[in-house]
Amino acid sequence: MGCCFSEPVDFDSEVNLFHFDLHRAVGKGAFGKVRVVEHKRSKKLYALKYIDKARCIKQKAVANIIQERRLLEEIDHPFIVNLRYAFQDDENCFFVLDLMLGGDLRFHLESRGCLSENAVQFWAAELASALVYLHKQRIIHRDLKPDNIVLDAKGHAHITDFNVAIHYSERRLHTSVAGSMAYMAPEVVGRKGYTWCVDWWSFGITIYELLFRRRPFDGRTSEKMTNSILKDPLRFPDDAHKKCSSNCVKFVQALLERNVSQRLGCRPHGQGFQDIQNHAWLQGVDWEVLNMKEVQPPFVPDMKKANFDVTHELDEFLMVEKPLTHTKRKANPDLAKMKPEVRQLEEQFTVYDFMSTKRRSYYPHNEPITTVVRSLDSDQIPVVQSISNTLVPTTTMGDRSRAGSPALDTTLHQHMTIPL
To answer: How far apart are the first and last CA of the chain?
Structure first.
């Protein structure tokens, strides 16, 4: 009877799939799946998100994948699903991320039926800390919702899925529509231009939904949804007082303020977070202890059960889709003969190893600009116009346009600056 021996792994070489043992599938995305993997040398467990290159190219999402890869290299925060490794083979691009086995908040919202104010308040504090960090990194998430908030085994909340996240610019507002419509801010669906403040609106919609199992603004068509977001009054369920405190209601009301200059978290000069910290609903939070994860979460996931859709494992078992396997790369690929999209992935989806690579930013620093107030818009928000002659660097303009944003927009809102 014969025996098979696997080829020894060279851990001193660039990180690749052979450095990991593949375990069960725990999620499914647009271009691939998420699996639990174990680093063979450290024995640490991670989540492996893998992107099918062919499907990515077919859906014209190459720029998004590269953008996500670059943004994740900049990020390291206790309440974000952080990147640990990145690499590729001939068929897939791989993200190796912090493992979160506690399930996403959509799963818990649907399986439990209701979530306590105490638990939502705790997660809100952790998520606020993460959002402030992202905004200081000049990053807008653009898709905050229960599906993109995952719990670790102890019950701490983490923001994940940076597929449509972008850097914001101090020179112009973004106008591209991205994310999940039900969570989009009025300035996004109304196409007035936006920056990091849209995340605080999505944050408010998320808190509302976690508490009441429905969203405040809805519609069966995109037109009706847009109209609801732009015009419908904010209403709370008749039994809201039974599910949460008056301070909680006021907190959500302040986040779901259509006038961006009055929205909670959006004051200029970095003072927005102070308003959140000082709000009566979160006033008792010890933020330093919270960021060290030393506060006991009020809700702990049941780790004896699967906190995800088990059909992902079934798909893998039945081979509904091509299963992931360890495969060696083609030696010395000829970049000149590659299709442009394949070459772009080859050159720009670079290897990352958190044990040996220092995190860096791909975003050039903005130069200060001079602005003058021009007028008030229909919502009485000051609209100002840049009178600086300095333009966005060409590389930045190209990156943004490839990611679906206009290269330059000289119309700005006065309140939308955040210092580093």
So the answer is: 65
Question: Are 173 and 406 a contacting pair, CB within 8 Å?
Answer: no
DSSP symbols for 159-210: E---TT-EE--SS--B----S-GGG--HHHHTTS-B-TTHHHHHHHHHHHHH
Catalytic residue among 52, 89, 104, 143: 143
pLDDT < 50 regions, the chain: 1-2, 4-5, 312-314, 316-320, 366-420
Which single residue is written with the structure tokens 């975003």?
363
Q: At what angle do helices 246-255 and 198-212 cross, to 10 degrees?
A: 140
pTM above 0.85, yes or no: no
Cβ-Cβ contacts under 8 Å for 348 (sequence gap 6 or more): 66, 69
Counting beta carbons within 10 angstroms of the beta carbon of residue 14, is it exposed (0 to 12), middle (13 to 18) or buried (19 or more)?
exposed
Alpha-helical segments (H) within 270-355: 272-278, 287-291, 311-318, 340-348
Q: Which of 185, 91, 189 is closest to 144 using CA atoms? A: 185
Place of tokens 């923001």: 159
Angle between helices 246-255 and 117-136 in degrees, nearest 10:
30
pLDDT at residue 140, rounded to an integer: 96
pLDDT the model gives residue 24 = 86
How far is the C-alpha of 213 from the C-alpha of 116, rounded, in Å?
11
Q: What domains, with CATH codes, occur in the chain?
A: 17-100+307-353 (3.30.200.20), 105-291 (1.10.510.10), 371-413 (no CATH)
Q: Is 409 a catalytic residue?
A: no
> What is the maximum span of the chain, computed from C-alpha positions, in angstroms?
84
Which tens digit of pLDDT belongs to each residue from 214-272? Answer: 999 999 999 999 999 999 999 999 999 999 999 999 999 999 999 999 999 998 766 78
pLDDT given for residue 39 in this prediction: 97
Which tens digit of pLDDT belongs to each residue from 52-78?
999 999 999 999 999 999 999 999 999
